[in-house]
Amino acid sequence: MNIALLQINPTAGDLRGNAALLSTAAQAAAARGADLAVSPELALAGYPPHDLLLSADFVTRSWTQIDLLARELADGPPTLIGLPELHPSNDGRPLFNTVALIRGGRIEQRIRSARIPADTALDESRYFEPFHGTQTIDIAGRRVGISFCADRWNDRNPHDPIEALARDKAQVIVALAASPFACGKHALREQRLADLARRHQVPLVYVNQFGGNDDLVFDGRSCGFSAAGAPIARGASFDADVVLCDITRTEPIGAPTDLDAESELWSALVLGTRDYARKCGFGSAVLGLSGGIDSALVAAIAVEALGPSHVLGVMMPSPYSSRGSVDDSAALAATLGIDTLTLPIEDAMTAMDRTLAAAFAGTARDVTEENLQARIRGTLLMALSNKRGSLLLTTGNKSELAVGYCTLYGDMAGGLAVIADVPKTMVYRVARWVNATRGTLIPESILTKAPSAELRPNQTDQDSLPPYDLLDDILQRHIERHESADTIVAAGFDPHTVHRVLRLVRHAEFKRKQAAPGLQVTTRAFGAGWRMPIAAKYEP
Amino acid sequence: MNIALLQINPTAGDLRGNAALLSTAAQAAAARGADLAVSPELALAGYPPHDLLLSADFVTRSWTQIDLLARELADGPPTLIGLPELHPSNDGRPLFNTVALIRGGRIEQRIRSARIPADTALDESRYFEPFHGTQTIDIAGRRVGISFCADRWNDRNPHDPIEALARDKAQVIVALAASPFACGKHALREQRLADLARRHQVPLVYVNQFGGNDDLVFDGRSCGFSAAGAPIARGASFDADVVLCDITRTEPIGAPTDLDAESELWSALVLGTRDYARKCGFGSAVLGLSGGIDSALVAAIAVEALGPSHVLGVMMPSPYSSRGSVDDSAALAATLGIDTLTLPIEDAMTAMDRTLAAAFAGTARDVTEENLQARIRGTLLMALSNKRGSLLLTTGNKSELAVGYCTLYGDMAGGLAVIADVPKTMVYRVARWVNATRGTLIPESILTKAPSAELRPNQTDQDSLPPYDLLDDILQRHIERHESADTIVAAGFDPHTVHRVLRLVRHAEFKRKQAAPGLQVTTRAFGAGWRMPIAAKYEP
Q1: Is A251 helix (H, G, I), strand (E, B) or coil?
Q2: What is the pLDDT of residues A320-336, one digit of tens each?
Q3: Does the beta-carbon distance from A12 to B530 stay under 8 Å?
Q4: Which of B52, B276, B355 faces A343 most closely, judged by CB atoms?
Q5: Residue B75 CB contacts under 8 Å (≥ 6 apart), including other chains
C-alpha cells in the first residue's frame, strides 16, 4: 500500500490557493500510483489560521472549497484533507478539528480530533472541542487510523496518541501535522514517531507542512516508519514534496543528513524570510547595516531569500560610528552583491537636539540621546520602506531582545525580526558556517571585532552585559527551561549576574510587547510562546 | 450567615503584596463579623499571571505565601483564597486552578476547578487541567459550593456551572471570579447570576477583583443574590471594597446606578491608566496634544488618573498644522491645569528631507512624508518620556487602529494606548459626558471641528474614510460580532464601503501586531482578543 504525503506550503486563510496546492500534489500522487493521499493538519485553512476560525463564514467557505476539490480529484485516490468544521449544535462553535476523506468526487467521511492539545502555536482550545467518535477509515482493504498532531504529546504527557487507534485494530497510522520548526526538534520527532510505531507494531506515516507563516517556520520532513520503527520514507527539508511511502517496506532508509544546528537554522531563517515577504506581497527588502555581525547575517539571509538585486543595505553613520563599521558594511555589501545607501544621521541628530534643547536644559546626557540616534535610524529606514514598498528587516538577536539591549521604534523597527530567536553566540556560529559553506560572504573583521551599539564613544556590549556565552547560557535556562534564579545559581552561576540578567529580562517586557514578529527557531521564542504580564511584580 | 467578599486590586506576580491586601481585607471582614471570607479567582497570584504560571518556582512560592497568610489570619473566619497548584504527578504541569480554604492557621481543604474555560483573557487551558473532585465545603453548618468564574459560561454554552453544586446539595454558592470589564457587561452579568440563583433556588455570592492589569480593567462590583434571584449585596464599582453579604436576606437592594456607557468607560479608562502607571512604577505621563478630540480626551483621563501636575502635554506643530490646533490645545491644557511644551517639528522635517533627498530624488510625495512627520513626533515624545521617566500615553482610537489610519512608531508610539478600544463615535460621547458632568474641560471647538490628521494641507479624516458613525457600525459588526462582509451587506450597508473597510482592517494587521497595550473596554479588543495572521490571504 502506497501512501502519498502531500507536503505543501499553505498560506493562512487562502482557501483557493491551498486547494490548488493540494490538487496539484494529489494529482502527482495519483500519477505515481498512490492508494491514499494525505494532507497536513488543517491544510485547507492554512496553519495556523488563528482567529479566522472565529468567522463562521470562513469555516463554511472551507467546505465549499473542499466540495470543489473533491470533484476535481474525483478520479484520484482517496485523499485526506484537514480543515475546521462547524459544530452542528449551538451557533457552530466550538469547532471540530476535522479531516475529510474525499473519494469518488465527494466527501465520504469526517474524522474529528478527539484531543485538543494545550500550549501549541495555535491555542487549539480557543477554537476546538474534542469529539469522541471513530478515528479509523478503511482504504484498500486496510484499516487506517487517523492521528492528529502525533508529535505534540511529549514524554511529559502520559497520553499515548496511538494507543486507542491500535486498540481499534488500525493496520497503519496516518498522522496529520503542522509542527513548527525548532532547532533540534526533528531528530526527537523521528525518534518519538519510531518509538510509537514500534511500540504498537504498526506502520506510521507523518505528514507535515513546510514554509513560513508569520513567526512560524515549518520544516516539512514528512516521514514514514515501518512496524519495527525503521525509517522508510522522508520528505524534503524546508521544501515542497510529494512523498510516496510504501508502508510494507521494512528496509530502513538512512538517517537525515541535515540536522546540524547551523544548517537547520540557516534553512529555517531563509525560508521564513522568503515566505513572509512573499505572502505579505513584498518583492524586496531593506535593512540597516551597522558593521556588526547581526546585520551582516540578516543581510546574507535576505540575499539568499530574495536575491541580491532585491536587497538594499543602508549605512547610517553617526559621529560615534567607527570608520571600520562603514568600511566593513561596504565590504559586506560588495561580497553579497547588494546596493547600498549611506545616510549620515548627524544632521537629524542636530535638529532633534536643537528642538529639544529648551526641554532638556540642565539635564545630563543619558540613554535618551542614545535612543534618539536609534530612532532617527528607524525613521529613515521606515521612510525607505514606505517609499520603495520594501519590507524592513530588523536585525536584533534574541540575547539583546531578552535583556532589552535594543531601542523600541529604533533598531527594533521593522516588519520582520529575522534573528530575534537566535542567541548571539548562535549568530556567530551560523555566520561562520555561512562563510565555511558559501565562501567568505561575511568579512572576517565583522566576525572578530567586539560587538558594540556605537551609540557613544568607545562603547562595547560587554561594558553593560556579561560575556555572551555566559549570558546565553543563563537566558536559555530561564527562557526555554523555565529555570528560576535559584535553580540557575544552584547550577553554579554567579548569583549577582543571574539576578541582574533575570531582572533585565523582566524589565524589557514592555519592549518585547511591541516587537516585530520574529521567526521562531527554538522551543520557546518571545512572542506567542512567552506571555508575560508587563505591569507585574515578581523577581524570578 | 455573613459572607465577606474581598474585592481587592491584586498585581500579577506580587505574591507578598497580594497577600497583604487579602490580609487587610480579611481582618476587616473579621471585625465586621463575617462567617466566611472569599477572595477573587487566583487572587494570590494576581490575575492574569500569564506565563508566570509556567514557572514551578512561582507556584511553589504561592504556597509558601499562603501558609504565612493562614497563620496571620489564624484567629479570623475561614477564608477562601484562589491560587495555582502544581499537579502532584509529572513535573507539576498542567496546573490546577485551586481555591484553598484556610482556617485556624492552616490550609484545611483544596478545591480545584473542574472546568477550564476556553477563550478567556488568560488562555486557561494553556496552564490548567480540570480536576474532578468535591467542590463543596462545610462552613457554619452550611454546605457551601465553590464555583470558578461562573459568569464565563454564557448562553451559547449549554453547560450550567451551578448545576453540579446544586445536585451536591450546596446551600449557598460562592463564585470566585476575575472578570474583565467590558462596556455593558455588568448588567448582563447580574442578570446571569440572578438567573442561576433563582433556577437552583440557592443564594449566590460572586467575588470579582478590581483594578487595571496591563490591557485588562476589572470593575469589581462583587455581588450577592438571594435564592429568589434578588440582588442583596453589591460592591463598589472600580474601587476597593469588603462587601458583607447576609445570605439569608431576601429584600432586594436597588439596581446599579452607574451602568450608562459613558460613565462606565470613563471609570474604566481612568482606573486602567492609573493602575498601569502605578504598577509599572511611573509617577507621571506625557502625551502629544494635536488639537483633536482623541488627545483631548486622553489628557482629561490622564489628569483624572494621575493629577494635573503629573501630566505634560506636548504640542508639535508642523507647517500643516492649523492655528486652531495649537490654540485649542493650549486652551485644553489651561482648563486641565497641565504644563505644556511646544516643539515645532519643521526643523527635524527639513533635516530628514535633506538626509533622504538623494534617495528620494525623482519620486513623488506620498504617505512616506506624512509618516515622517508622525515618526518625528513619536521620537520627540519618546525622548521626553526617556528623559523625564514619564509614561508616554498614545492617543489613537479603535476606529483608526482598525483601518490602519495611524503611523507605526509615530502616533502609535507609547507605553499605553488609553482609548485604543474606544470607537471614534464613542470618543465623542465620552468627551461630551465629561464636559456635562465635570465642567467644560474640553473646549467646544475641539468637539465640533472636522477630525484631521493634519499631515498635508486641508486634509480631513473623511477624505479617506467613510463617516465615523457608518464606519463604527461596520467595524463593530465585524470585530465584535464576527460578521462577514456578506452578512454586513445583507444588513443593508453599501457593498463597496463594506468591502473597502474590511480590506483596510485586514491590511492593518501588521501595525496592530506592534501596537502598545490598549485598555480593553469592549467584548473584543485588538490584542489578545484578536489574533489574526499577518501573512494571510483571506477577504472577510
Answers
A1: coil
A2: 998 888 999 999 999 99
A3: no
A4: B355
A5: B30
Before B48, cis peptide (omega within 30)? Answer: yes
Q: With contact defined as beta carbons under 8 Å apart, do B155 and B162 qualify?
A: no
Nearest to A11 among B351, B515, B537 (CB): B537
- Return the SS3 of A22: helix
Contacts B21 to A, Cβ<8 Å: none
Contact A57 B213 (CB under 8 A): no
> Chain B neighbours among A 64-123 (CB < 8 Å)?
89-91, 93-94, 116, 118-119, 123
What angle separates helix B56-72 from helix B15-31, to the nearest 10 degrees?
Answer: 30
Q: Which of A54, A119, A408 sits opposite B482 (nearest CB)?
A: A54
Instruction: Give the pLDDT of residue B264.
Output: 97
Per residue in A370-428, pLDDT (tens digit) is 999 999 999 999 999 999 999 999 999 999 999 999 999 999 999 999 999 999 999 99
Q: Which of B212, B379, B532 sits opposite A375 (nearest CB)?
A: B379
Neighbours of A183 (CB within 10 A): 18
Taking the CA of residue A58 and the nearest CA in chain B, the distance in Å comes to 8
Distance of CA A479 to the CA centre of its chain: 17
- Partner-chain contact A517 B517, CB within 8 Å: no
> Nearest residue of A to residue B506 by CA position?
A52
Q: Which residues contact B464 (CB under 8 A, 6 or more apart)?
A: B405
How far, rounded to the nearest angstrom, does the alpha carbon of residue B111 sit from its chain's CA centroid? 28
Three-state secondary structure string covering B235-287: CCECCCEEEEEECCCCCCCCCCCCCCHHHHHHHHHHHHHHHHHHHHCCCCEEE
Type of residue found at A514: Q
Over residues B437-464, the mean pLDDT reads 89
Q: Do A14 and B54 touch (CB under 8 A)?
A: no
DSSP states along A275-303: HHHHHHT-S-EEEE--SSHHHHHHHHHHH
User: Which residue ranges form the domains of chain A, and what is each CATH number?
Assistant: 2-248 (3.60.110.10), 264-461 (3.40.50.620)
Instruction: Kindly report the pTM of this predicted structure.
Output: 0.96
- pLDDT tens, position by position, A25-61: 999 999 999 999 999 999 999 999 999 999 999 999 9
Do B12 and A533 lie within an 8 Å CB cutoff? yes
Tell me what pLDDT residue A90 has: 65
Decide if B504 touches A, using CB distance below 8 A.
Answer: no
